[in-house]
Design brief:
Elements: E1 2-6, H1 12-24, E2 30-35, E3 39-40, H2 46-51, H3 56-59, E4 61-62, H4 63-70, E5 73-76, E6 79-83, E7 88-91, E8 94-95, E9 101-103, E10 106-109, E11 112-115, E12 120-121, H5 129-132, H6 139-161, E13 169-174, H7 178-196, E14 207-212, H8 224-236, E15 240-242, E16 249-250, E17 254-256, E18 262-264, E19 267-270, E20 274-275, E21 294-295, E22 308-310, E23 315-316, E24 318-322, E25 325-328, H9 333-351, E26 365-370, E27 374-380, E28 387-391, H10 392-411, H11 413-429
The protein binds flavin-adenine dinucleotide (FAD).
Length: 436
């Protein structure tokens, strides 16, 4: 049996690891992971890559080496389509940085296919976003943001050193969800560390961060109390929070609302919504929802093709109804992780010719970290199985434990322990911020 997994993200890499260990190593199935990148970095850390708190070069996992260690094969491949009749996935030509074709367009055959290609930022068709805003969908974009940030810090520091105290860097972030809130706090920390590491003219007055949200409050997925507390905390850090402010257009000079409000910015980040990649809507015979997600059965097989599974941000599964509207499994790392576990069990059951099991979603809560200043969130299933609001140190520890859980899923407990130890040592051995 040949199992092909497309996408080695929060869900796909854990799945490939489990199947590689349980089926690949024992010769019960061939497991092939395809990803358009050579390395994996956990997506919820991308805002830290953008600010420089995390160095993607140091913290990423090489798919090829990880596959070698865990019994699956890996190919770098940008998948562009599926031929369901012939049971193949179509792969775009692979080109080098100069655009020179190194590998031609090709196909890979599957007996079972798992689509785990995640989501991408939704610009909702707002004019100018694609041209002028930076998105945080992949490590390359986060690294591009970081390089830009360093250049802008250098520009302002030099100008102020030469007496032009009016110069400042204005970064606007559109979207008051977890990504926008976390990134804005990270930028304040980045300025502090750059000032410590030699850009001494960069004072708090020289960095302006605006967080712009169309809805009435930040963090709509969390309670009103947490949302108010997070806003107060961000404002204490000097961040200008604009709620009820819908951006109608992005230009080279900044952002504009339909009412004519202008934000003159040097850098703009769009973090205002998620959808699955567009090509999923063009797959004949497979249905998608408004967010382009492939509709799946409770077993996580896509509706209309029992040989294809989907998980994570690209899978649409209705949990129930709220106010007459469908409630979908939320596009979160914990959903991708839980779905990957169900798909792993179901594929193993396929090999063993046992009936498949349905996916059961368990909400463990949500956490938001304002860099190392503070954190907020709610944890589910606490005392009396209700939800427990957490804040400060406990919330921060729970937030860090989410990444450790992901590391345990892919590296196992011992290796994760060693990684945690090396992270601790790196705090002493390496600069606290990526400075280039
Ligand atoms: C900045 C940021 C912060 C976030 N913070 C949190 C958080 O705190 N908590 C939380 O629960 N969630 C958070 N999320 C959401 C979370 O990251 C996603 O829900 C989760 O990563 C989804 O996992 P996935 O496996 O479905 O897809 P992903 O993790 O997105 O992985 C998809 C993989 O597919 C690959 N791929 C995509 N298209 C193709 C293709 N055509 N061919 C081949 N490979 C392809 C990609 O390279 C990637 O490796 C955050 C997201 C972002 C962007």
């Amino acid at each position: 049996m040949r199992i092909v997994i497309v996408g080695g993200g929060a869900g796909g890499l854990g799945l490939a690891t489990q199947l590689g260990r349980k089926l690949g190593r024992r010769g019960k199935a061939e497991v092939l992971l395809l990803d358009r990148n050579h390395t994996h970095i956990w997506k919820p850390l991308l805002h830290e890559v953008a600010s420089g708190s995390l160095d993607a070069e140091v913290d990423s996992v090489s798919y090829r080496a990880h596959g070698h260690r865990n019994g699956f094969q890996f190919q770098v491949a940008d998948v562009t389509g599926i031929d369901r009749q012939r049971q193949t996935v179509q792969i775009a030509p692979y080109c080098d940085e100069q655009g020179q074709e190194l590998l031609p367009a090709r196909e890979e055959a599957y007996d079972y296919l798992v689509m785990a290609i995640g989501g991408q930022t939704n610009d909702f068709g707002v004019a100018g976003v694609a041209e002028h805003c930076i998105l945080l969908d992949c490590p390359q974009q986060a690294q591009r943001f970081h390089r830009n940030l360093v250049d802008q810090f250098l520009r302002v520091n030099r100008a102020v050193a030469q007496g032009d105290n009016e110069q400042r860097l204005h970064v606007a972030i559109v979207g008051g969800g977890a990504t926008g809130v976390e990134l804005s706090a990270e930028l304040i920390k980045a300025r502090q560390w750059f000032a410590t590491y030699g850009l001494t003219h960069l004072t708090p007055d020289h960095l302006k961060v605006s967080l712009i949200e169309a809805g009435p409050r930040l963090l709509p997925a969390l309670s009103e109390r947490i949302s108010v507390a997070a806003k107060a905390e961000l404002e204490k850090l000097g961040i200008a929070v604009h709620t009820d402010t819908q951006v109608g257009q992005a230009t080279a000079a900044g952002l504009e609302t339909p009412q004519g409000q202008q934000f003159d910015c040097d850098m703009m980040v769009w973090a205002a919504g998620v959808k699955a990649p567009d090509f999923l809507t063009g797959l004949t015979g497979l249905e998608t929802n408004r967010a382009n997600q492939l509709l799946v059965e409770p077993t996580l097989q896509v509706q209309g093709d029992e040989r294809i599974f989907a998980l994570g941000d690209c899978a649409g599964l209705v949990l129930g109804e709220q106010d007459g509207r469908p409630m979908w499994v939320p596009p979160r790392a914990q959903s991708a992780h839980q779905m990957a576990q169900t798909v792993a069990q179901n594929l193993i059951r396929k090999v063993e010719q046992k009936p498949l099991k349905p996916f059961v979603y368990k909400d463990y809560g949500s956490l938001v970290s304002l860099s190392n200043y503070t954190a907020f969130g709610k944890l589910m299933g606490g005392i009396g199985s209700g939800s427990l609001s957490v804040e400060g140190r406990i919330a921060r520890m729970a937030y860090i434990s989410l990444y450790r859980k992901h590391q345990i899923a892919i590296h196992g407990i011992w290796r994760t322990g060693l990684l945690a130890l090396s992270d601790g040592l790196n705090q002493w051995l390496r600069p606290r911020m990526k400075l280039h």
